[in-house]
Amino acid sequence: AGFRYFQQMFSDYYFWKVVWNTVVINLYNIAVGFTFTIFFALMLNEMKLRRTKKIAQTAVYLPYFLSWVVFAGLIRAFLDPQTGLINTMITSMGGQEVMFLTDNRYFQTVLVITNTIKEAGYDSILYLAAIAGVNPELYESAMLDGANRYHMIRHITLPRIYPTIAVLLLLRVSKLFASNFEQVFNLYSPMVYDTGDVISTYIYRIGMESSQYSMSTAVNLFASVLGLIILL
């Protein structure tokens, strides 16, 4: 077939739409989720009460061990327009019900926040492990010099976990053209295709549902090559 399917892919306006959605959601995830995970690990490390720290760690780690099928069901229950906890709180304060999962204005934000809730616990373990390797004498010396906790975080903790941050950021960037199929597939609907349809769900529909296997293979190869280029 030569480059027939690549030409068909590049001439398809909707293909570029799903590429744009994928990149925007992943950049959004890096800006919000990646930053929050670092902040959470730093704050968790500052907790002095061991019991409170363990409870907080367990609460944040728990979602990571749930499958996206189960977690998406919980999200749907929480965001239900009529019976969901979030909309119940909004209406009790005099607001209007928000269609979080069927409104293009909110869907990408829902994807980013729910992904952060689910993945933050695992990533924070890596940062906490890096923080645990910092020489405690550095903190003691800083304290003698009059440094407060903010100064210690900024000038001691952060510089020494930069290598870990860099590695995890590279892994995130390498997935700029990838997408969490399980998450999107279990949360999206045709009403939010405009902002929520990503490369992986697009490949699934044209490959598994429409039986355009050659086209879906071309799209997948294109996304993989772009991911490699971005990583390099």
What is this structure, in a nutshell?
This protein is mainly alpha-helical. The chain contains 12 helices and no strands.
Structure description:
The chain has helices at 4-10, 13-46, 50-61, 68-79, 85-92, 104-132, 136-144, 149-174, 181-187, 193-196, 199-209, 213-231. It is mostly helical. Helix 8 (149-174) packs antiparallel against helix 12. It is globular and about 70 Å long.
Any descriptors?
mainly alpha; 232 residues
Q: Mind summarizing the main beta sheet?
A: none
So how many helices? 12
Beta percentage is under 5%
What structural class results from the helix and strand content? mainly alpha
What is the N-to-C order of secondary-structure elements (H for helix, E for strand)? HHHHHHHHHHHH
Question: What is the element layout, followed by pairings?
Answer:
Blueprint: H1 4-10, H2 13-46, H3 50-61, H4 68-79, H5 85-92, H6 104-132, H7 136-144, H8 149-174, H9 181-187, H10 193-196, H11 199-209, H12 213-231
Helix pairs in contact: 1-12, 2-6, 2-8, 3-6, 4-9, 6-8, 8-12, 11-12
